[in-house]
Write a structure and sequence with these properties.
By secondary structure, the chain is an alpha/beta fold. The protein folds into 2 domains: 108 residues, 3-Layer(aba) Sandwich (Rossmann fold); 76 residues, no CATH class. Helices cover 41% and strands 14% of the residues. The protein is built from 8 helices and 7 strands; from the N terminus they run αβαβαβαβαβαααββ. Strands 3-4-5 form a 3-stranded parallel β-sheet, covered by helices on one side. α4 runs parallel beside α5. The protein is globular, with a radius of gyration of 18 Å. It starts with a helix and ends with a strand.
Amino acid sequence: MGRYHAQAAVAAGASISGVVDQDFEAAKSLAAKCRGATPATRLEEALKSSRAAVAHICTPVSTHSDIAISVAKAGLHALVEKPLGVSAADVRRIHQSFEHEPPGRLVCPTHQYAFQRSTRAASAMLPTLGALKQLAFDICSAGAAAGLITADELIAEILPHPLSITQQLVPGIDVAKLDWSCIRSASGEWLAAAP
């Protein structure tokens, strides 16, 4: 996922100052594609020598909290792959760190699908189609986490996308208040439905 973030950041005019990965060869490979980026295997080392203003956290969700808190303490802003944390308590810890260490740092989870051209087009078209009776999503991974996490962990990381798209397509809906039915038919497959 880091390579997608790096490509998007560079396309938006940013420069990448460092790439951290437990696998040094992977860090070195991505850093080589980002002019001037320094590869590293340890976050602490990268943060000490960083000239960055923002850290992109593109790791399994179970690591987000500790990494985000380290980034906040280093004084950087953070863009974190969704979901922000594994629990509400995790998310509160992250927010408290960005409010206090030092104050004024921003943290933002990514929810890019809700803002893509196809979602905006569907949102504009919905009023012409009549009452919405059902909304279904089939979402597949682009392979960014291939072999690094289990199928169920991958589904948990993808699940925020249909929720954010639903909120874009049905303005004012509170997905947290819907009566959801979830069925796990097989490893890596979840069916979630709300009346």
